[in-house]
Amino acid sequence: MDNIDRKILELLQENARISLKAIAENTFLSSPAVSARIEKLERDGVITGYHIQVDPMKLGYHIIAFINLNVAPVEKMKFYDYAENTPNIMECSFVTGEYSMLLKAAFKSTMDLDCFIGQLQRFGKTSTQIVFSTHVGPRGVAVGE
Prior knowledge:
The protein has helices spanning about 5-15, 20-25, 30-45, 75-85, 110-120, and strands at about 65-70, 90-95, 100-105, 125-130. By secondary structure, it is an alpha+beta fold. It has a four-stranded antiparallel β-sheet with strand order 2-3-1-4, covered by helices on one side. The model has no long low-confidence stretch (mean pLDDT about 95).
């Protein structure tokens, strides 16, 4: 990966809908050359997808919570299946520390969150933090050397 690839990644992380022409102008390449580089980054697994970001609040999800969950190793695959099929879960990570899972989830009310925590507790002990505000939201990673 060279500096041009890094610039392409930077531009796409800022705006996944940026045109090939705009990327070409920023990298001093032709549009076909940019397209070929993007295809290679996709093939190599550097670019894994293109996504939109929505504001959960505008969709009625007024509660965002980070939930720590301690899942027994033998229950891990069963829990992963549950997590993948639960739309309120925005992210699920296997982590180090006192708890084995860290979930980010969205709810329309504290009653919905309470019900969800009750369901989660069949997998293990939980600890929950409710988000008051987010100063730095989701963003890409630095692509510099």
